[in-house]
Amino acid sequence: MHESPITGKLIAVEGLDGSGKSTQVYLLHQWLISLGCRVYFTEWNSSILVKDATKKGKRRQLLTPTTFSLIHATDFADRYDRQILPMLKGGYIVLCDRFMFTSFARDAVRGCDKTWLRKLYGFARVPDITFYFKLPLEIALNRILEGRPELKYFEAGMDLGLSPDVQESFRIFQGRVQDQYESMIPEYNFTPVDATLNVHEQQQKVREIIAGTIDLAQYHQRRWVNHD
Q: How many helices (H) and strands (E) does the chain have?
């Protein structure tokens, strides 16, 4: 039995919390829909299969770095198998708000072996385009701290014992995550985007890159099909 060929395109966005990547991928999604393209959107850590287990583990602070990594890998594998891959085979442009690179960055900071992490996600294809939204650490931190009443335990890397102060722990943790992202730019051919530009300037650059890389006419809907 022959497997269906991959005719779709995979686009991912990555960056620090506060980098504005989720806003950009939302705007990109709306733009592609407005062009009449077949497009599908998925986001990190959203599989129903492991959502409850993740919440419970975080709430009780039961997760070791390896357990944390395996749960996220399970979430990703479920979405990849049930959503991402079928849509790619169906000729869709698939947009991912975070991809396996989020795990490569965060889990490596938590002490997981980099080679092990890459083997763990070895089933996944590398995106056709990965936008990396680059932003100075202090700006990213200020955006997050302005928008949150309090930082979450794991979000701030409190499980690593970096600092008893949650804001300082967050600062150190995010700084290390940023270093991991920077090291992946050449490894995975990330496309950096200056996230200090205003929202519209960033979106314009993202659209220009996609239009210059992907023949969008190939992904126009002949007729609308509701896959919900």
A: 9, 5
